[in-house]
Design brief:
About 35% of the residues lie in helices and about 25% in strands. It is of the alpha/beta class. A six-stranded mixed sheet has the order 6-7-8-3-9-10, with helices on both faces. Strands 2-1-4-5 form a four-stranded antiparallel sheet, with helices on one face.
Length: about 240
């Protein structure tokens, strides 16, 4: 489904050039959900933007269904960390923004209801809790019925209970819709809870230092299991080693 081959990405030129990603290769199978973790500033979000076609790689290739990524695709949706809501638009208008940009006449009514936002369609972002804002951002992406969903820390800076609710919500949507997902997160527990594989990146210039198999992700009661705790401890130790 997604193929990343020998991908490198640098900013600037000459002496000012800063290498962010260095010769990264991996693939994501159709219907798989993977997590990306690594030190701050190692290029995880940059990689996500490259997958979305917003940034052109310096070298290497990104393919989706065998087609080279050159710009934004209709079957790929991106969820931003701060939800990216427009304060002057209602919940409905924000949720349907992607549809309108693509010239589609569909509406987000069912998606909003699925995410627990029924009755809030006419509200504005300033009238919502932070957790509800994040759900509107998720609704905007899911309303497009994407085959690939890219998530840039969509649950960052939320309180623990709200984060857990949205994590469970995302798992439910993934199981029901069957999209292929790539999640960037700084939260190790979140990475293990949601990612069937966890891709571990080194400090900048980032290389892919390990791919951790995590097949129990998404299963009932996994969060409270000993296997879950073992993998969280392993990843925490791994990331601490990377930064030393």
């Amino acid at each position: 489904m997604i193929e990343v081959e020998s991908l490198s990405l640098a900013y600037g030129r000459g002496r000012r050039e800063i290498m962010t990603l260095d010769d990264i290769s991996f693939s994501v199978e159709e219907g798989e959900l993977v997590s990306l973790v690594g030190p701050s500033g190692c290029g995880k979000s940059t990689l996500l933007f490259a997958l979305d076609g917003l940034i052109k790689p310096t070298t290497g290739h990104i393919r989706i269904d065998g087609e080279e990524v050159h710009g934004i695709r209709r079957d790929v949706a991106l969820i931003l960390q701060d939800a990216g809501l427009l304060p002057w638009k209602t919940v409905r208008d924000n949720a349907e923004l992607g549809l309108r940009i693509q010239g589609l006449k569909d509406d987000a009514t069912q998606t909003l209801a699925t995410l627990g936002l029924e009755g809030f369609e006419s509200r504005y972002p300033g009238e919502l809790s932070e957790g509800m804002k994040r759900r509107v951002g998720i609704a905007r992406a899911l309303a497009l019925h994407p085959r690939v969903l890219l998530m840039d820390e969509p649950m960052a800076n939320l309180d623990s209970l709200t984060r857990e609710k949205i994590q469970n919500l995302m798992l439910k949507q993934w199981k029901e819709r069957g999209f292929t997902g790539v999640l960037v997160t700084h939260d190790i527990e979140e990475a293990v809870l949601l990612g069937q594989r966890v891709l571990v990146f080194s400090p900048r210039p980032a290389v892919l230092s390990e791919v951790l198999a995590n097949p129990e992700a998404g299963m009932a009661e996994y969060r409270g299991s000993e296997k879950f705790s073992e993998r969280v401890r392993y990843l925490r130790d791994k990331l601490q080693e990377e930064e030393e």
